[in-house]
Amino acid sequence: MRLGFVARRIASTLPVLAVVAVVVFLLARIGPGDPAALIAGDAATSAQIDAIRSQLRLDRPLPEQFLAWAGQVAKLDLGHSIYSNQPVTRLIGQRLEPTLMLALTTIVLATLVAVPAGALAARRPHGLLDRALMLVSVTGFSVPVFVTGYALIYVFALHLGWFPVQGYKPLAAGLGPCLATLALPSIALASVFAALIARVTRAAMLEILQENYVRTARAKGVGEGRVLMVHALRNAGVQVLTVIGVGFAILVGGVVVTETVFNIPGLGRLTVDAVLKHDYPVLQGVILFFSALLVLVNLAVDLAYGVVDPRISY
User: Fold this and answer.
1) pLDDT tens across 80-131, in order?
2) The pTM is what?
3) Using CB atoms within 10 A of its CB, is residue 74 exposed (0-12), middle (13-18) or buried (19+)?
4) CA–CA distances in Å: residue 76 to residues 27, 70, 114, 264
5) Residue from 16, 14, 58 nearest 33 by CA
6) Cβ atoms within 10 A of the Cβ of 80, count?
7) Contact 162/111 with Cβ under 8 angstroms?
8) 120 burial type by CB count under 10 A (0-12 exposed, 13-18 middle, 19+ buried)
9) Distance between CA atoms of 148 and 170, rounded to whole angstroms?
């Protein structure tokens, strides 16, 4: 893999981040109502509203506001929360572990379940396993994450008592307690994520299993398990990696709802709290962080293509 290609791909992400920054900036300023008045509340005086407007630089021309804000962002200074007066970067850092752990456990769980299920379903199209996979996939896409979350809480937390109802235990408290608090939210998120991965894996495998090299492997007496997991699944790796990258966007959106349902103090909860409080610096910072994370994930997926499939060279 040439370093020049990596440098070009990294450089190509900068315009995307710039566009996202412009959109995030404008959303907080062209929406209905006066942001300063919304933040101050109904009982605020004109002087208090003017003070908030001055603090947020809302009393300056729009281009000047953007240039000042963009200059701060370029220095990784996302401003301060209006309510807690803490740096936004510190607030994001404090909430980062629960969100990353939830995302990691969801991705691992969904991949471990969906990839083998999709491969086995493609072995016998329209068979019992294939039909069951399609039914589960449609259900996973159709049922909202918060509905699945509440159902899991009722069955496995309230009725059976296997897992905590809500909350989060940090890694410092031990891996076991941490995973116990993440089990139900990870399953709720993975129900959507796994459905997407399984269907794409099945479709890719169905196409690859018709290739001549697969027929040749079978004619040579190679076991069916090796044909599926080595010859076919490895060549389907590019499609699987692509859908994992796309699905990560779904995962980021689902985190906001899931963390609210399970009372997990992550970036999703921080986003909801910022929206309810009209804390625009925090909201802008979190959206920028999520956008940069999505861009980096897509970059990592592009770079991984050459590792999964040696035929792809940069």
Assistant:
1) 887 777 888 888 888 888 888 888 888 888 888 888 887 777 777 777 777 8
2) 0.78
3) exposed
4) 20, 10, 38, 26
5) 58
6) 19
7) no
8) buried
9) 24
Q: How far apart are CA 295 and CA 276, in angstroms?
A: 27
DSSP 80: B
- Which CATH code is given to the segment(s) 90-308? 1.10.3720.10
- 7-39 pLDDT, tens digit each: 777 777 788 888 888 887 777 666 656 666 666
- Per the CB < 8 A criterion, the answer to whether 131 and 139 are in contact is no
Which residue's entry shows tokens 């090796």? 226
Q: Quote the CA–CA distance of 44 and 281 in Å, as a whole number.
A: 20
- Please state the domain extents for the chain: 18-74, 90-308
Distances (CA, A) of 147 to 140, 240, 267, 272, 303: 11, 27, 21, 18, 36
Q: CA-to-CA distance for 10 and 296, rounded, in angstroms?
A: 9
Tokens representing 124 are 């016998």
Q: Which residue from 62, 69, 72 is spatially nearest to 29, judged by alpha carbons?
A: 62
**Nearest Cα residue to 80 out of 51, 56, 111:** 56
DSSP β-bridge partners for residue 80: 87
